[in-house]
TrEMBL record:
It holds the Pfam family Pep_deformylase. GO terms for cellular component: mitochondrion. It catalyses: N-terminal N-formyl-L-methionyl-[peptide] + H2O = N-terminal L-methionyl-[peptide] + formate. Keywords: Hydrolase, Metal-binding, Protein biosynthesis, Signal. It is an enzyme of class 3 (hydrolase). It comes from Batrachochytrium dendrobatidis (strain JEL423). Removes the formyl group from the N-terminal Met of newly synthesized proteins. GO terms for molecular function: metal ion binding; peptide deformylase activity. It comes from the Eukaryota. The keyword Ribonucleoprotein does not apply. One of its GO terms (biological process) is translation. This is Peptide deformylase. Its EC number is 3.5.1.88.
Length: 156
């Protein structure tokens, strides 16, 4: 079903980088696979999460947006990406998604995600379509993250 070499590579890469999610396409593997985790204690506290989100792999994910608001009303937050290091931009995302797929063991997985996890999943799903955050970001919101503390190019 899944090349275990890809899964091992994702397992190795994820803890070595401070990434929240990764799509196989980002590391040049043309399979439909996303991985995510939330372990950073500061982020968990900032986003009012009940605790860490364990590393999860979803093969052949199918996402449904459950947010009732029109996309123009979705919350815009700064996103960053390992594919475009040191930059971030404001991206509007739905706050609630439903994802189905398969785990690395072949068993079905269903995830109802809200907030930051919904954002991460949408970001990784975009990678499978060849879409980067810069393709969806609000105009003039791109910033170089090394200079965030010195000035804000765009404030919300």
């Amino acid at each position: 079903m899944l090349d275990l070499g890809i899964a091992r590579l994702l397992i190795i890469l994820q803890p070595l980088h401070s990434v929240l999610g990764l799509a196989a396409a980002q590391i040049s593997h043309p399979v439909q696979l996303i991985a995510y985790q939330i372990t950073d204690t500061q982020l968990i506290k900032e986003k009012n999460l009940p605790g860490p989100v364990a590393r999860t792999f979803i093969v052949n994910p199918v996402m449904t947006i459950l947010d009732k608001l029109p996309s123009a009303k979705w919350k815009a937050e700064y996103e960053f990406c390992e594919s475009i290091p040191n930059y971030s931009g404001l991206v509007r995302r739905a706050d609630h998604v439903h994802v189905t797929g398969f785990g690395l063991d072949g068993n079905s997985i269903t995830v109802n995600a809200k907030g930051i996890l919904a954002r991460i999943i949408q970001h990784e799903m975009d990678h499978m379509e060849g879409i980067l955050f810069i393709d969806k970001m609000e105009r003039q919101s791109l910033r170089h993250d090394n200079y965030i503390d010195q000035f804000e190019m765009f404030k919300r």
